[in-house]
């Protein structure tokens, strides 16, 4: 696969949230042309009129010579060489099912989604490969540690692009690199993607503990045990040699578990403070992927039968309505 200058790439960005907005900022300012699909006609009109996303990271101004907002999904995809998926995992299937099965035939797909397809319990890249009959070498995933809010502020950030095709990963890294973003390729697509799913579960559980009044000491133990839980789960599903202390794994986990910008931690904190799941979801303006991830990983582990006390505790709180205080008290006894 040839490596082209940044200005020659055409990217279809799917999604209107904060991460889609941040990625559009990065790649467009680097010279790529972005066809930006948003569901809302009002949001598209606002962007065309003001150059700002009215809902997320509204301080970012876009150059409309490089960024073309639109609501016609098929047209946006047809014009692109790359497709970047940045819609919540719970909604990606109904969005992509609107496309013809051959629509992605000659394109390279990057998932920026930190979740799984609900009910199917499959990774987003696995679903895309099956739905559109794509080779693994056409697929990649983008991982942190990186919060969209800090990208908007142009704070130093690091990204990893995972793909079985190292050339694809390196090419997309080139589209992202600038003075405040460093990007590195990796061949471990599955490991990075599963880690991105599981770190949301851990962050959500950290939020629950924080909402209950637990401090930094307990959270440090929780995150340490979480690394072991992730290692067991990954070894059962994808037993490849990987260094979980690398930033794509541990770094992404830490920033999501501790940051003020983490929507999963915020969601968990609300649940820990006594909000019902429904009321917490209604009050938040963004989707907490961890809510859906908990059920998917819990269901997958029914066959694997790995020791996953954090995932089990989160599942019982969110889906079986067990009191958060009870579950965290039980979880304490399982940590070392």
UniProtKB/TrEMBL annotation:
Q: Which residues bind NAD(+)?
A: 91, 148, 263
- Enzyme class (EC, first level): oxidoreductase
Which residues fall in a coiled-coil region? Answer: none
Catalytic center residues: 199 (proton acceptor)
Cite the EC number.
1.1.1.94
Which residues belong to any copy of the Glycerol-3-phosphate dehydrogenase NAD-dependent C-terminal domain?
188-325
Give the record's pathway.
Membrane lipid metabolism; glycerophospholipid metabolism
Tell me the ranges covered by the Glycerol-3-phosphate dehydrogenase NAD-dependent N-terminal domain, including all copies: 10-168
Q: Which residues are recorded as binding substrate?
A: 114, 263-264
UniProt binding sites for NADPH: 18-19, 39, 56, 114, 148, 263, 287, 289
Where does the record say this protein resides? Cytoplasm
Keywords (alphabetical) are:
Cytoplasm, Lipid biosynthesis, Lipid metabolism, NAD, NADP, Nucleotide-binding, Oxidoreductase, Phospholipid biosynthesis, Phospholipid metabolism
Which reaction(s) does the protein catalyse, per the Swiss-Prot or TrEMBL entry?
sn-glycerol 3-phosphate + NADP(+) = dihydroxyacetone phosphate + NADPH + H(+); sn-glycerol 3-phosphate + NAD(+) = dihydroxyacetone phosphate + NADH + H(+)
Pfam family example for this protein? NAD_Gly3P_dh_N
Its GO biological process annotations read: carbohydrate metabolic process; glycerol-3-phosphate biosynthetic process; glycerol-3-phosphate catabolic process; glycerophospholipid metabolic process; phospholipid biosynthetic process
Q: Which PANTHER family match?
A: GLYCEROL-3-PHOSPHATE DEHYDROGENASE, GLYCEROL-3-PHOSPHATE DEHYDROGENASE [NAD(+)] 2, CHLOROPLASTIC
The record's listing under HAMAP family reads: NAD_Glyc3P_dehydrog (MF_00394)
Role description: Catalyzes the reduction of the glycolytic intermediate dihydroxyacetone phosphate (DHAP) to sn-glycerol 3-phosphate (G3P), the key precursor for phospholipid synthesis.
Record protein name field: Glycerol-3-phosphate dehydrogenase [NAD(P)+]
Q: Which organism is it from?
A: Hymenobacter crusticola
């Amino acid at each position: 696969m040839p490596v082209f200058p940044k200005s020659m790439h055409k990217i279809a960005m799917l999604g209107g949230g904060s991460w889609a907005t941040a990625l559009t900022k990065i790649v467009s300012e680097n010279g790529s042309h972005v066809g930006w699909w948003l569901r809302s006609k009002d949001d598209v009109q606002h962007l065309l009129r003001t150059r700002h996303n009215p809902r997320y990271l509204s301080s970012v101004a876009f150059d409309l010579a490089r960024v073309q907002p639109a609501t016609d999904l098929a047209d946006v995809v047809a014009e692109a060489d790359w497709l970047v998926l940045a819609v919540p995992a719970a909604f990606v299937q109904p969005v992509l099912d609107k496309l013809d099965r051959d629509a992605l035939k000659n394109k390279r797909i990057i998932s920026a989604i930190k979740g799984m397809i609900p009910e199917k319990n499959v990774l987003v890249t696995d679903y895309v490969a099956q739905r559109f009959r794509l080779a693994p070498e056409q697929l990649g995933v983008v991982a942190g540690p990186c919060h969209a809010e800090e990208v908007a502020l142009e704070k130093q950030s690091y990204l990893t692009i995972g793909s079985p095709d190292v050339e694809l990963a390196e090419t997309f890294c080139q589209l992202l690199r600038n003075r405040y973003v460093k990007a590195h390729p990796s061949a471990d697509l599955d490991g990075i993607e599963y880690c991105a799913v599981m770190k949301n579960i851990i962050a959500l559980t950290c939020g629950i503990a924080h909402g209950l009044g637990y401090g930094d000491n307990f959270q440090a133990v929780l995150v340490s045990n979480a690394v072991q839980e992730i290692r067991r789960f990954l070894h059962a599903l994808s037993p490849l040699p990987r260094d979980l202390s690398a930033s794509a794994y541990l770094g992404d986990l830490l920033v999501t578990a501790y940051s003020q910008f983490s929507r999963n931690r915020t969601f968990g904190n609300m649940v820990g403070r006594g909000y019902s799941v429904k009321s917490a979801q209604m009050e938040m303006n963004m989707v907490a992927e961890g809510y859906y991830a908990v059920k998917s990983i819990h269901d997958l582990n029914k066959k694997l039968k790995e020791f996953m006390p954090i995932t089990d505790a989160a599942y019982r709180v969110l889906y079986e309505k067990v009191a958060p205080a009870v579950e965290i008290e039980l979880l304490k006894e399982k940590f070392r």
